[in-house]
Amino acid sequence: MPALLYAGLAAAGIAASLVFYLSGRIDPSRLAVCLALIAGAGFVTELQTSEFPSNHISRFTAIDDRLTILGTVVSEPDIRPTKTFLTVAVDSLVYRYRRISSTGRIRLRIGAPTNRFNYRDRIRFTGYLNRPYAGRNPGAFDYRRFLMIRDIYGLVNLYNDESIELVQSGALEPFVRNLVVPIREYIVDIYERYLPAREAAVMKGFLIGDVRYIPPSVYQRFKDTGTLHVLAASGANVAYVVLTVFFLLRPFGLRKNHKRLLALVAIVIFSFLAYNQPSVVRAAVMGVTLLVGRLLYRDITPLNIISFSALLILAFRPLYLYDLGFQLSYAAAFGLILFVPEISQHLPRPGGWLRKGVRGVLLLFSCTVVAQIAVTPILLYYFHKVPLVTFLSNLVIVPLVGIATGVGIVIVFISGLPGVVELTGSVLALTVKGILALIDYFYQLPILKLRSGAPPLALIAAYYAALLLVLTLWTRRRAALSFLLILVVALNVSVWREVAAGEQEDFRITFLDTWNTNTTFIREASGRCTLINGGGLYRSFDRGESVVLPFLFSQGVRKLNRVIAADTTVENLESLVSVLTGLEDLPVSEDGEAKSDSAYREQIEVAAPVIRLGSDSVSVVILAAPVSVQKLHSLPRRIDILACDWHYLESGKLAQLVDRHELSTVIITSYPNRYLSTAIIEEFREQHPRLMVFSVLESGAVAVAASRMGYRVLASPNS
User: Fold this and answer.
1) What single DSSP character describes residue 630?
2) What phi and psi, each to the nearest 5 degrees, are found at residue 669?
3) Considering its fold, how many domains does the chain have in total?
4) Residue 645, strand partner residues
5) How far, CA to CA in Å, does 272 sit from each of 285, 471, 653?
6) pLDDT (tens digit, 9 = 90+) per residue, 184-199?
7) How would you class 404 by CB atoms within 10 Å of its CB: exposed for 0-12, middle for 13-18, buried for 19 or more?
8) Distances from the Cα of 229 to the Cαs of 43, 396, 430, 559, in angstroms?
9) Distance from C-alpha of 599 to C-alpha of 309, rounded to nearest angstrom
10) pLDDT for the residue numbered 719
11) Which H/E stretch holds residue 149?
């Protein structure tokens, strides 16, 4: 809806709430406040996503010309081994010698590591302003959406920093430059001095969430064992900070409120030390809310604390509601707050050391299981798989990471004590090595992953309603009927959604966007799945692993019945092997040994570039690579759908095929590069106005759904 309509509804909700409250009708007053909050969030969201002023930076992303941009660095530089990212709030730009005042944020990518620029620096640079790319295939990472949630609407790429002019230093921002940065550099220097390189990189992840220098293989193993969350600064880190402050202040005999005030300051500093990542900001808001509540001598209810912190964050950034990290952290936190207190009442009461130890282990296991159950549907929705080993790995890894983080904090404070700091560094290095060894062990355990396509939102709602129904029945709360009603409605929506989907498809063909390679996936009504080509490789980027596999997971595909290579290049075969390897949870052969690449290559069929498919109602021909004129002459006269790579359009062969055959639909399944002008496609459309022409260059993946009634093409409206 328009932003002004949202604003009007918010104002009406506030007015209605006051009227109800003054008349003594409290429940309607509360309901009106809730509606006003939702309408207010809609108003802010519209302002942040669509109703931009005419000079907003997003209005200039379609200009095919270089712009000179003046702006301010509004977050700390993200310096990586091979590149640097700056978030810049634009003040003005120069286009064709005309200066235009502008607003909005962009991301500046510099193709080399550089520390020339700092927070609050004003800089000027010239380059092409591009719009971030959206997800080009189902299940793919949507970079445009990711940046939009962070209020970024443009990209500029520069090879180096030589052309960037520092207009004004941000030295007037003393908090970050004179306090936060020196403390962070001191911590990093301590770790790099007393720990091996790999352990130092992991330790920076444990303490401040800096994962940039962790080897990719190590990072992937944390991810595959469900322990990646320990590398993100979050609630546990904030708790360590508060405990450290209280411990260090203990000898001084300060009052509790004075300690809490100093802990508030420490939380804010730590949030900046951890680069104000969304996870640490959420944890910091919760910690600050808790301490402020204690300072005001209010009763502290954990459920109120976490709810208020979520509302506070969403009041300023409503789009964070769609952020994966926000959803995971609050789902886990709500699960722990609601279920763990009830579970703890049924655990053994603490008596001796043995009973305390048993209770502690059971409580830790309960927290792990509850948190995993709470986030499972979210993980399935985004990643389509959940490593079941996480129930075991977190039980061991989380306490050890807590120990490592505690020792990591200690070594920072005792760094001036010769001998002691070396000994502590050795203990810390040994602890981190032990954690990494355990991560490797859990990674190699033969435990399957829970796999599924993206579950419908109605089914996710039914899942959480069922959890809350179990909780209310267990605790005999009166809300059970409400959650039962939600569960029934959500299940009905999920079931009737499938019924309303219409006639069953005979088959569906999806032409994936893998740039210069024709990659096709076919699913028949019987459930048989066929993959033609694997996407190929581009330098170190494996499209089979990074593009095709996420698509298959999003479709709930667990097995491919046929794997066809119409392109026999090494790059295509290697990408197909990556797909086959990724689909198997336990890649072992019949004798129990790990499968080799040759074992997977045996599953790949080699086929000619001309592939004919179809049913009684529709015929499809796929030209997966250039072929001779003789083979083209052998094609049937009538072809409903012709899918071909870019070569046929550029060489003029496609126009000849249109003249010679009865075609209804043409799909261009590849293109040389993303920046190629679509002028050739538009010219072809003008020459053949009766022909439906689609292209993965314009719309990303293109799907064809065929049934007895005919076929329909599913693609972006742009095509």
Assistant:
1) H
2) -100, 5
3) 6
4) none
5) 13, 38, 59
6) 999 999 999 999 999 9
7) buried
8) 33, 14, 21, 29
9) 53
10) 36
11) helix 143-149
Q: At residue 588, does pLDDT exceed 70?
A: no
Residues 306 and 202 both lie in one domain: yes
Q: Are 57 and 154 in contact (CB under 8 A)?
A: yes
* pLDDT confidence tier of residue 563, bands split at 50, 70 and 90: very high
Residue 48 scores a pLDDT above 90: no
The answer to whether residues 106 and 146 belong to one domain is: yes
3-state SS of the chain: helix, strand, coil percent to 5?
Answer: 55, 20, 30
pLDDT in tens, 72-85: 999 889 888 889 99
Whether residue 130 is contained in a domain is answered as: yes
Is 719 contained in some domain? Answer: no
Angle value at C-alpha 185, between 183 and 187, nearest 5 degrees: 70
For the residues 472-491, what does the mean pLDDT come to? Answer: 82
What is the distance between the alpha carbons of residues 88 and 86, in angstroms, rounded to a whole number?
A: 6
Q: Is 21 domain-assigned?
A: yes
The H or E element that residue 125 is part of is: strand 122-130
H/E/C letters for each residue in 153-177?
Answer: CCEEEECCCCCCEEEECCCCCHHHH
pLDDT of residue 57: 94
pLDDT tens digits, 265-286: 999 999 998 888 777 888 898 8
CA nearest neighbour of 107 among 52, 51, 146: 146
For the record, the structure tokens of 357 come out as 């130890």
CA 467 to chain centre: 25
The candidate with the shortest Cα–Cα distance to 231, out of 216, 243, 242, is 216
610-631: per-residue pLDDT in tens?
988 888 789 999 998 888 877 8
**Residue 718 reports pLDDT greater than 50:** no
pLDDT at 322 over 80: yes
Is residue 49 pLDDT above 60, yes or no?
Answer: yes
pLDDT of residue 590: 55
Asked if residue 304 and residue 201 are part of one domain, the reply reads yes
Last residue in a domain, options 360, 388, 416:
388
Q: Which of 451, 468, 483 is the last residue of a domain?
A: 451
Give pLDDT, residue 591.
Answer: 57
Residue 571 shares a structural domain with residue 678: yes
Beta bridge partners of 84: 79, 110
Residues 600 and 679 in one domain: yes
Tell me the DSSP string of 403-459: HHHHHHHHHHHTTTSTTHHHHHHHHHHHHHHHHHHHHHHHHHS---EEE-----HHH
Residues 426 and 466 in one domain: no
Q: What is the pLDDT of residue 205?
A: 92
Residue 293 in domain: yes
pTM of the model: 0.86
Distance in angstroms (rounded) separating the CA atoms of residues 625 and 202? 45
Axis-axis angle for helices 278-295, 324-344 (nearest 10): 50
Q: What is the CATH number of the domain that holds 145?
A: 2.40.50.140
Q: Which amino acid, residue 336?
A: L
Q: How far is Cα 137 from Cα 140, in angstroms, rounded to an integer? A: 5
Report the alpha-carbon distance of residue 230 to residue 360 in Å, rounded: 20
119 and 65 in a common domain: yes
In 3-state terms, what secondary structure has residue 388? coil
Three-state SS at 617: coil
pLDDT surpassing 50 at residue 407? yes
For residue 91, give its domain range.
57-172
Give φ, ψ of 541 to 5 degrees.
-95, 115
The residues that bridge with 595 in the sheet, in sequence order, are none
Say whether both 128 and 157 belong to one domain: yes
CA nearest to 206, candidates 167, 166, 233, 240: 233
DSSP state of 505: P
Angle, to 10 degrees, between the axis of helix 256-273 and the axis of helix 181-194? 80
